[in-house]
């Protein structure tokens, strides 16, 4: 089988395609034939610069290693002790640093769940990481509820688009920031209001917000504290919370991590299956080295609306 590997960090040219044997499962393992994978910020950053300094030792990759987070696929083999899955199951989940591969080997206990077989596996390849990050920032840590006013920065991106939908499903009044070109898309996702971050100052347009979900970096986060009502919350996925500022204003700030339990994953799969959560596919790329390089370059160029997906041949 083909597998993409890194032996050093740097430009897209450090990625190499190698041939290895299809893995065989131990008693408690499953083998998944990969259908599609998402192109995600952690893969770009790790490929370019190596592991994040804040990564826990137990998940910090060591060269040589692959890349890849979320995936969809079909189970082709299971170990003798596996009870949660059967051969032929369609699944989605998380495979840290091992999804850039035609087959994925995981423990049965991994955060993986079955999906109805009638669902298209291509968009589901980019489902987990964006939804997990959005779920953590909006629902688990953000505690979005019916009747609240929620401001989501970066509402058209791979994570932001899920955050808008999750907040709306929770019954919140949703305000989303993005470009003018993304306004209609964010409204289609469920945003009640949109703000053009390029020409409008959100601090002059919103106030008394119950929750701010920050997906766009430290500068936006620093400007967001002032629009949150006392007792409100702010979550951030890519910039650290200023604890002194949140304490001074009487608000709760949480640096939110992109993970889900198996039960949470099943919950959002149900939303997706019922048409209440969508994954917009921006562009697809075949699982070939030059195409993977181009996917990384396109992602790095910015202005991402929806997900870039790498698709494996059947």
TrEMBL record:
Keyword tags: Cytoplasm, NADP, RNA-binding
Superkingdom per UniProt: Bacteria
Domain Enoyl reductase (ER): 10-310
GO cellular component term of the entry, any: cytoplasm
Entry keyword annotation includes Ribosomal protein: no
Transmembrane found in the keyword field: no
Subunit structure as annotated in this protein's UniProt entry: Homotetramer.
Organism, scientific name: Candidatus Enterococcus testudinis
UniProt-annotated location(s): Cytoplasm
Protein name: Enoyl reductase (ER) domain-containing protein
Pfam families documented for this protein: ADH_N, ADH_zinc_N_2
Gene Ontology MF terms: oxidoreductase activity; RNA binding; zinc ion binding
């Amino acid at each position: 089988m083909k597998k993409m590997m890194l032996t050093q960090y740097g430009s897209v040219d450090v990625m190499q395609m190698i041939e290895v044997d299809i893995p065989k499962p131990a008693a408690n393992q499953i083998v998944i034939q990969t259908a599609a994978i998402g192109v995600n910020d952690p893969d770009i950053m790790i490929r370019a610069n190596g592991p994040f300094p804040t990564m826990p030792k137990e998940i910090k990759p060591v060269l040589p290693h692959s890349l890849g987070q979320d995936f969809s696929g079909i189970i082709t083999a299971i170990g003798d002790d596996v009870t949660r899955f059967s051969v032929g199951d369609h699944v989605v989940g998380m495979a840290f640093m091992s999804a850039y591969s035609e087959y994925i080997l995981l423990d049965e206990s991994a955060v993986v769940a079955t999906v109805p077989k009638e669902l298209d596996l291509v968009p589901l390849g980019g489902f987990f990481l964006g939804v997990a990050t959005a779920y953590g920032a909006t629902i688990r840590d953000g505690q979005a509820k019916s009747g609240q006013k929620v401001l989501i920065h970066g509402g058209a991106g791979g994570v932001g688009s899920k955050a808008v939908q999750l907040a709306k499903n929770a019954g919140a009044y949703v305000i989303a920031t993005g470009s003018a070109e993304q306004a209609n898309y964010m409204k289609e996702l469920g945003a009640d209001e949109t703000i053009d971050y390029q020409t409008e100052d959100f601090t002059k347009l919103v106030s008394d917000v119950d929750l701010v979900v920050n997906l766009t970096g430290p500068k936006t986060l620093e400007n967001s504290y002032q629009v949150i009502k006392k007792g409100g919350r702010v979550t951030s996925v890519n910039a650290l919370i200023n604890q002194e500022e949140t304490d001074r204003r009487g608000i709760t700030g949480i640096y939110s991590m992109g993970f889900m339990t198996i039960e949470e994953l099943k919950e959002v799969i149900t939303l997706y299956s019922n048409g209440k959560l969508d994954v917009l596919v921006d562009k697809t790329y075949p699982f070939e080295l030059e195409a993977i390089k181009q996917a990384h370059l396109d992602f790095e160029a910015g202005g991402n609306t929806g997900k870039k997906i790498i698709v494996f041949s059947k």
